[in-house]
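Entry for the shared binder. Reason: the reviewer on the internal report wants the predicted structure included alongside the sequence.
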Amino acid sequence: MSALDDIEAAAAALNNLTAQEAAEKARIDAAVAAALGAFANPQKTVYLDAVAGLDTNDGSTPALAMQTLNKALSLIGAGQYGTVMLQSDVTVTAPIAFVGTALVTSPGVAPDGSAPIKRKVTFAPSAVTANPAPSANYAIYHAVGTSLIFIGVNVALGPVTTATGVFGTTYRLEFWHGSISFDPASTSPLIAAGIGASVWFIDMALPANYGGRIFQGIPAGANPNSTALRTNLLAA
């Protein structure tokens, strides 16, 4: 085979590889677009307004908003996915039983995380202490297979003193473009440590004294990924 033949064969092989790469890129782009489209056009959007809403409404418009996060999530439906659009700040005062995928967000959140107003979701002690056995000590429970994603939302713990965490561990939890804060009287960790938890913080403002407060049983400065927990935080 001549040098020219070698060059032509190499060029043909390169063209084939380039075509394969292009096909793989197209496949990945399609998968990403489909995933984004799922929330761009959610199965259901439920509006929540703790000030003007009523849990007897259907949540279909801002004028017919629900009053509680508990009821808003229940309207998404078991095993379904949807968006809860916060028209006001809200305080969670009773435990939530939800199995599905929900995006909880403020209106007008841009891809870079900016928003006209970032709403606040506060978890009160009664959201934990009122929880019946055997799921006591979690504000959100019995949620195997559940995903909760907060985008453009400030999450706050009231004076919660449970030792086990506000969020249970059978979760995919994501917090984007907001903040997390603790009431001065709160001693509770935010999230229970254990098998099955996947927790991500993206562009979130954490309090300066958060060490040891995010994950139950993981001391300040320790790597939470040393447990069955999976998170992008390198130190608790």
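Summary line for the report: The mean pLDDT is 80.
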